[in-house]
Specification:
The complex is a heterotrimer of chains A (494), B (98) and C (374).
Chain A (H helix, E strand, L loop, with lengths): L15 E7 L3 H12 L4 E4 L21 H4 L1 H14 L4 E3 L3 E8 L2 E8 L2 E12 L3 E3 L12 E3 H11 L1 E3 L3 E6 L1 H12 L6 E4 L5 H5 L3 H6 L2 H15 L2 E2 L2 E7 L6 E6 L3 E5 L2 E6 L1 E3 L2 H6 L3 E4 L4 E4 L12 E3 L8 H19 L5 H9 L12 H9 L2 H7 L4 H4 L6 E3 L4 E2 H9 L5 H8 L12 H12 L3 H4 L11 E2 H5 L5 H7 L3
Parallel strand pairs in A: 1-2, 1-6, 2-3, 6-20, 8-16, 10-11, 10-16, 11-12
Antiparallel strand pairs in A: 4-5, 5-6, 7-17, 13-14, 14-15, 18-19, 21-22
Chain B lengths: L1 E3 L8 E6 L2 E6 L4 H7 L6 E2 L6 E2 L12 E4 L2 E5 L10 E3 L1 E2 L6
Parallel strand pairs in B: 2-8, 4-9
Antiparallel strand pairs in B: 2-3, 4-5, 6-7, 6-8
Chain C lengths: L5 E7 L3 H12 L4 E4 L15 E2 L9 H25 L10 E5 L2 H15 L10 E4 H7 L9 E5 L3 E2 L2 H14 L3 E3 L6 E5 L2 E5 L4 E9 L5 H4 L10 E10 L13 E3 L5 E3 L14 H14 L7 E12 L6 E4 L6 E5 L7 H14 L12 H8 L1
Classes of the chains: A alpha/beta (494), B mainly beta (98), C alpha+beta (374).
């Protein structure tokens, strides 16, 4: 397919808008479409060169020709992206948001593009920053050759690259078998799939089974699993994993109840679900809570995506993992909420739109509220069935937890026994969380280790305190931001 | 570790250097993708204890794909589009200043 | 020491001030228990820049300069002690320090302030140098053309403040001091054996109590007949990615840590209890840093901090002991790093002996009444 013509970034003209949408995935695109349709001036900010976020990554530019490889769920994004590109919202691609400040008439968003920083004013902000892979700390996971399974998907979608040489896929979750299916369709042979879903999970999850069977996920998931089982060696109930090699991955060690083994591999793809990206919502000061079912921190929002802070709504997986279809619905709801917050819609009008069917031509006719309900159905089962086993969320010994600062699980445990009661004290003791990733790769693990050691829930022991910039920005870019008289007086004192 | 799918949309080839040696990729590649396609799987050694690292997430979250591009260090290779004539270098430890 | 049993010295506050005093007391053989809050507390101790700084302090109270100088002189002793007791090297370096001035006006004002300071009656004078741009450039390669000059003293230095906090805690444990986290002291009452401390779920009896709770001292001090009129003053810090060593000597506004990261300060704002960062102040500090070292322009900011300094009305410490009932002590300051040596090696033994030295009389809170009246 040919790449759709993308408009130039609106360079100096995007100084102010009604609604700034952060993130160009299904939630962000959907929010922008519906906000623009209501006559609001919308700017959408995304780091990528085009729309799609991660789930529809490179949807307008993918070099992959055979549509059967990426599958129908991926190509669904094409229509959504096309609708977005002509909806009247102003896209700012290749643009990284790194700070949001509240001011008298709304917000100032500090963004960088091509090494230059500037401020964009918005009366309302919709965060649609999506999800990230859940950290999967196993011994040796920092070796070159160990990657997130989502990374391989990104390479496939955006560059038409597939694994070459012996590759092992390990972990659990629906995405795992989607990737296996995509690899098969692309002609990639896998050494094996090491499935960490604990045996007997059916029994635990069966009370949610009825709901799951009625959900949109059942048929799809079942058929993917069946197809995968027929073509690849699958080891089930894997309880331990280890990536080994001198300076790079050479083989993958595994054990399950009855046996253990070692597979020579040059590439290990790890996946155990996704979690919301919360750095932006935390730095803003939005309230979050620990979701016990999904084992992650989630921003506290209502059905319309309203966060604990006026003027900030959160949509899509950033508000809690529910998948791409639910994200679209939540994007619409967030747009209606923004319009209501800005006074463009009354409460009744907002509610009416939430309940209105056939509300977009690229949709399937459901109202956003109904679509959200439909695509949330079955998630409880998925969450329970695919909850990553404890030993892969709470590592031990020399397993690296904070990749940036190279802090191990044992060091964290030792610090807790010395009186470190939470992640922020831990940061001060061990530097865990102080690296450039700002806790994205370690925060959830650290929270769970500390909670586990103290016999509490992460709800009680908490998460890293985060501040802007939420993405690294150069000192010169920061220096170029506006300075007030008061700020100068605070710094240049006699 | 990675190879190109044979059946892809035709893209313009881009010539770059990797650690001084000529290499190439395609328009639309990120620097990290081009490095992987060229067979480079470790991109740097860490400033903390000198561990070897390569890209992990490919979406700007892990900060392990840091490389020096045209003399500028600590660039996230997975977030930067490949351009003609880029000088890409693997990194060792902490960056210099000046 | 059993938790519900009696303690000789209860120290309220697990930050740098409290743990330095606790370590010092424990080293004299006293039984010590350190009461600390939970993970999300204001914790000035986590927002430290890490300077061991003499230059420019005490303009208006010479005793403060003297106390600070004493602490700086005894810092190598503390560092060696912590290496032995805790096995931790806190990376103390005292190569002298610079305050960079980005205009001739700044430099002139700075020079006259320091000249006034060291000429104060009662001060232990020290030499400082006023350096023109080319002199600064000779000592610090890479200085930008926007630097007009700097003042320098040989007494200044820096240390790793987080490692210092950790080392003091280890040292306290090593000398059998107890550390009670998640034990915020809500109330202090008199008790026949000294004082009764109430946390949310338990009570402890202590012969002596040292209030080192930072901003919390304001509410606790009156309960033991003392006063600690402290208020929060916000300081913001920028942290850059690790860089190969390029700056050995600290500056008051910028220093490179032993880990290679670069810290940039120095701001003072009256912002109440708001410990969030703000772009205008960060931008101002960043701008000055780039003018100081142009080569840092493309270095990345990996995180920022804001912390609340514990500020008395005149900015100087409060050291005082209670008269009735005796056995309560107030220790509060905003330079917990610089004064760590004085607190551990000088003040703690005084507290152990039961009497604060007359040299520290200028730090009694009664001076605020005088100041108010004046």
């Amino acid at each position: 397919m040919t790449a759709a013509a993308l408009p130039d970034n609106a360079r100096d003209t995007a100084a102010a808008c009604d609604v700034a949408v952060v993130g160009g995935g299904p939630a962000g695109m959907s929010a922008a479409i519906d906000a623009a349709a209501l006559g609001l001036d919308v700017v959408l900010i995304d780091e990528q060169p085009g729309p799609g976020g991660q789930i529809y990554r490179a949807i307008t530019t993918t070099p992959v020709r055979d549509r059967g490889i990426l599958g129908a769920d991926y190509w669904r994004g094409e229509a959504l992206a096309a609708t977005f590109m002509r909806c009247g919202a102003r896209p700012l691609f290749d643009t990284t948001l790194w700070a949001v400040e509240r001011n008298v008439d709304g917000f100032a968003l500090a963004v960088s593009n091509n090494g230059a920083a500037r401020l964009i004013k918005a009366a309302h902000v919709i965060l649609a920053t999506g999800a990230q892979e859940r950290p999967f700390p196993i011994p040796g996971w920092t070796l070159p050759g160990v990657m997130a399974a989502g990374a391989a998907q990104i390479l496939l979608k955006s560059a038409g690259l597939v694994p070459d040489g012996p590759v092992v896929v390990a972990g659990c979750g629906p995405l795992l078998y989607l990737i296996v299916a995509q690899f098969h369709a692309a002609g990639v042979a896998l050494e094996c799939v090491l499935d960490t879903t604990p045996p007997g999970r059916w029994r635990q999850s069966r009370r949610m089974l009825a709901e799951f069977v009625r959900s949109p996920y059942f048929v799809k998931g079942w058929s993917m699993l069946r197809r995968a089982k027929s073509r690849t060696r699958i080891v089930s109930g894997v309880t331990q994993l280890r990536a080994q090699g001198a300076g790079r991955l050479e083989n993958v060690g595994w054990s399950c109840a009855e046996q253990h083994g070692s597979v020579p591999a040059g590439l290990l793809l790890l996946h155990q679900g996704v979690i919301p990206g919360i750095n932006l919502s935390r730095a803003l000061g939005c309230a979050h809570h620990w979701d016990e079912a999904q084992c992650c921190f989630v921003p506290t929002v209502d059905t319309w995506g309203a966060s604990s802070l006026p003027g900030i709504t959160i949509a899509g997986d950033a508000a809690g993992i529910a998948g791409a279809r639910a994200a679209e619905a939540r994007g619409s709801l967030a747009a209606f909420q923004a319009a209501y917050a800005l006074g463009s819609l009354t409460l009744e009008q907002r509610d009416a739109r939430g309940h209105a069917s056939h509300h977009r031509s690229d949709g399937n006719g459901d109202s956003p509220l109904r679509a959200l309900r439909r695509f949330s159905l079955g998630r409880a089962f998925l969450d329970e069935y695919f909850k990553p086993p404890r030993q892969f969320r709470i590592p031990t010994g020399d397993t690296v937890v904070c990749r940036c600062e190279e802090v191990t699980a044992q060091q964290i445990v030792d610090a807790v026994s010395l009186g470190c009661t939470g992640p922020n004290q831990l940061k001060a003791f061990l530097r865990a969380g102080m690296g450039p990733c700002q806790g994205r790769m370690c925060g959830t693990t650290v929270a769970e280790i500390i909670a586990h050691e103290r016999g509490l829930s992460p709800a009680e022991t908490g998460y890293y305190r985060l501040r802007f910039p939420t993405k690294p920005v150069t000192l010169a870019e920061l220096a170029s931001m506006p300075k007030t008289e008061a700020a100068i007086a605070a710094v240049v004192r006699k | 570790m990675f190879r190109r799918l044979p059946d892809t949309v035709a893209r313009r080839a881009i010539a770059v250097t990797i650690d001084g040696a000529p290499a190439s990729g395609f328009e639309g590649d990120t620097v990290a993708a081009a490095l992987l396609a060229a067979g480079t799987s470790d991109f740097r050694t860490t400033p903390v204890i000198g561990s070897r690292r390569g890209p992990f997430c490919m979406m700007g979250v892990c900060f392990d794909c840091l490389v020096t591009i045209d003399g500028a260090p600590n660039q996230q290779g997975c977030m930067i589009a490949l351009r003609d004539g880029m000088k890409i270098e693997r990194q060792h430890g902490a960056r210099d200043v000046g | 020491m059993s938790h519900a049993g009696e303690v000789e010295f209860a120290i309220i506050g697990g930050g740098l001030v409290g743990v330095a005093i606790g370590y010092g007391l424990a080293r004299t053989g006293r039984s010590v228990a350190l009461f600390d809050e939970g993970d999300v507390a204001y914790r000035a101790a986590r927002g430290n820049f890490g300077l061991v700084w003499v230059q420019g302090k005490g303009n208006g109270l010479p005793a403060y300069s003297n106390w600070t100088q004493r602490s700086a002189r005894r810092w190598p002793e503390l560092a060696a002690m912590l290496r032995d007791d805790a096995g931790i090297d806190v990376s103390l370096a005292q190569p002298g320090g610079f305050q960079i001035c980005l205009s001739e006006e700044e430099l002139a004002l700075r020079e006259s302030k320091l000249a006034r300071l060291v000429a104060q009656p009662g001060i232990e004078p020290y030499t400082f140098e006023t350096l023109a741009r080319h002199e600064v450039a000779g000592r610090i390669p890479g200085i930008g053309p926007g630097v007009a000059g700097a003042t320098y003293t040989a007494l200044d230095g820096h240390v790793n403040p987080l490692r210092l906090l950790r080392a003091l805690h280890f040292g306290l444990r090593r000398h059998r001091g107890a550390y009670l986290p998640e034990s915020k002291v809500e109330h202090i009452r008199r008790h026949p054996d000294g004082f009764m401390l109430d946390t949310h779920d338990r009570s402890f009896v202590a012969k002596n109590v040292v209030l080192a709770a930072g901003l919390g001292n304001a509410q606790l001090a009156p309960q033991v007949g003392l006063a600690a009129p402290v208020r929060p003053q916000r300081g913001q810090i920028i942290v850059l990615e690790r860089v190969r060593p390029f700056l050995h000597a600290p500056m008051s506004q910028l220093r490179q840590t032993d880990e290679g990261t670069v810290l940039i300060g120095d701001s003072q704002e009256e912002a109440g209890f708001d410990d969030t960062v703000g772009l205008p102040v960060l931008a101002t500090m960043a701008d000055r840093a780039v003018r100081t070292f142009p080569a840092l322009a493309d270095a990345r900011v990996v995180r920022t901090w804001a912390a609340l300094r514990v500020m008395s009305p005149d900015g100087y410490p409060v050291y005082e002991q209670s008269a009735d009932p005796p056995g309560a002590w107030i220790v509060t300051c905003h330079s917990g790093v610089t004064l760590a040596a004085a607190h551990a090696l000088d003040l703690a033994p005084q507290i152990a002996a039961g009497v604060i030295d007359s040299r520290l009389q200028p730090f009694a809170s009664s001076r605020f009444d005088v100041q108010k009246a004046a």
